[in-house]
Amino acid sequence: MLLSVMAGFDPRDPLSRTDDPAVFATDLASDPAGLRIAWSEDLGFLPVEPAVREVFRSARRFFDDIGCRVEPAHPDLRAAPAIFQTLRAHGFAASFGSFLEEHPDKLKDTVRWNTALGLSLSAREVARAEAGHLAVYRRMLDFFERYDFLVLPSTQVLPFPKTVEWIREIEGVAFENYLQWMEICGVITLTGTPVAAMPCGFSAGGLPVGLQIVGPPGADLAVLKLARAFEQA
User: Which residues have C-beta within 8 Å of that of residue 135, sequence separation ≥ 6?
Assistant: First the structure.
């Protein structure tokens, strides 16, 4: 319902689409039988807490039950974290650069760090990240020639206490900054593909775990339909 009123073309946004947003207000009922699902716990390179993996694995049967063809697979996104961090820092420099110079005490540590990183980037580093961004996008297009959707966990750790600002380590892998514990989201954001984040179960201690349903560029409605079918299952 939200997309049916906020989506659509606007000349002020060069990335807006010309599709009729009214389709998002239609029935999401669909037959997912035969859809090709790529199933990945960690994209092949990210540390993921065992409890998250366990709950995520338990959700696979629901996709089997609704007739999807599920198999282990993932695109090669190993270069994506560095690209994401560079482009994010570049954006922070544009948004907060002047404010950091004038009022550094009014920004929290992570914002100061991210902005300073952006201000330190060279034109060559930004250009290399932009080129890498396009390469990642094209790699996703190739991947979706073989699969209809990619399904993976929505986080790498269980929910943690609010007093912990960010996770410093997962499964023996130590992190240097506040972005690395959530790269399973960041790298997908970089691809520009539509995602539905769905609850998929609870840990043995009762903490919620979620999964991401990722579709090809522009396939927002198809993602919502599969999300609905999974939710019902």
Answer: 79
